[in-house]
Amino acid sequence: MSGAGNIRYKVAEAARLAGVSASTLRLWETQGLVVPERSATGHRQYTEADLARLKRISWFRAERGLNPAAIREALDAESTANDEPGPAALSESNIDLQVGRKLRSLRHAAGKTLEQVAGDVGIAPSVLSTLERTSQGVSVAVLHNLAEYFGTTVSSLSGEEELQARVLVRAGEWRNWPRTTPGVTVQLLAEGQNQMDCHRFVLAAGASSEGAYRHDGEEFVYVLSGRVEFVLDGDQFYDLHPGDSLYFESRRRHAWSNRHDGETILLWINTPPTF
Hints:
CATH topology of the largest domain: Jelly Rolls
Mean pLDDT: 82
Low-confidence stretches: 1-5, 80-95
Radius of gyration: 19 Å
CATH class of the largest domain: Mainly Beta
Largest sheet: 5 strands, antiparallel
CATH architecture of the largest domain: Sandwich
Structural class: alpha+beta
Number of domains: 3
Strand content: 15-25%
């Protein structure tokens, strides 16, 4: 495989990444909601575009309560926005495998097996294996826990610290973090080894941290569009709308989820860069 865009997932793997059962994927296929590729031997193969579609199907079913016909109509309405990425985007996607490669190198350097690391972090070895191979399939919370386990940060795993400092970043010229979590796009608003992590989070409908995490420092979140819910310390809930902001100590356990039926965009700053 020459890059992240060429990855193909088997039924069981795609089902796990989409958060549904393999039988559900087969049902959706019979309903015409998704049509996976077939290998030379006839086995189903799901692309990254298929995975994104599966996430949307799951969200429409769970959050909107739509039936298959209504889901097909909703997906068709989004078809323009969900077109396959062009050559420039595919070129950028070639860096998307680096998170998995870095984690594998860190694990080998520590002399740990897949089973040892997965057990210590609280995930299945198959999930860690998929992450190391494809840089895909884990939540933001799990990725943070893995980074913390190896004494590094998500920013470092994503290659942010390796970039040359830029004084000016023009609108629309943001570099993306490798896409490890379906529905979550992180764009860099400042580059280089700075005292602040300055990011633009773009959350697809239904995207979330899928768990709480914490680290050193302080952070500021400003909602540019959409709607997001933050949960601090497990019992403090904040429903944020466009123009709302939230400031909190990063040592407080925090989780978040997009509560908008469309895309939510956040300005998110951490200092020091410990995420």
